[in-house]
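S.,

Sequence below, as promised.
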Amino acid sequence: MRKKPAESNISPPRPPLTDDDIYEAMKKIPGYLDITPGDFKEVYRLAYEHALERLTTSVQVRDIMARQVVSVSADAPLAEVAEVMGRNGVSGVPVVDAGGKVVGVISEKDFLVRMGVKSPKNFMSVVAECLQVRKCVALPMRSQRAADIMSKPAVTVGADTPLNAVSRILVDKGINRVPVVDSEGRLIGLVSRADIVKAARQGTAP
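The prediction came back faster than expected:
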């Protein structure tokens, strides 16, 4: 398992804008305002959308990525991989080779699929399967290693990738997170859907 120092500077999401908020704001501006609350709200909406577009095109992955990354080696036993994921409370980890290059990704879904659970959705699918067959469906995996079940090739992005590009990758690939690598393919961070949503709600660059 490898970790890097954490960095986070995401502010909480903005509260919704109401008509009362608009009236109170307009009353605090000296002089006469030749604008209706409806016009004010429309201007605010357009300004917010512009700020959001600016954020997703100008802010790069390096600005919001998690730098404390839990990873496992390709030859790690699956029991160790599961223990690492459980201890750190993560549902997926990058798999790296001896040089720190990302060679794959392992998620809970990879475990569920290899355990033969039909239409796996979550941990309770495993519980149900165990109760039905009266044995642990994970036993056949005891001798396997990370490289045996990881998803590959790994989908990765560079630190200078714009947020809107990362969002498209996550949607197109149907994944929740993507490792961030340097020019040599070595792991330097991780960015998730949650990271992008938090940055978008903030409305300004971190």
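The CA atoms of residues 59 and 162 lie 6 Å apart.

Coffee later?
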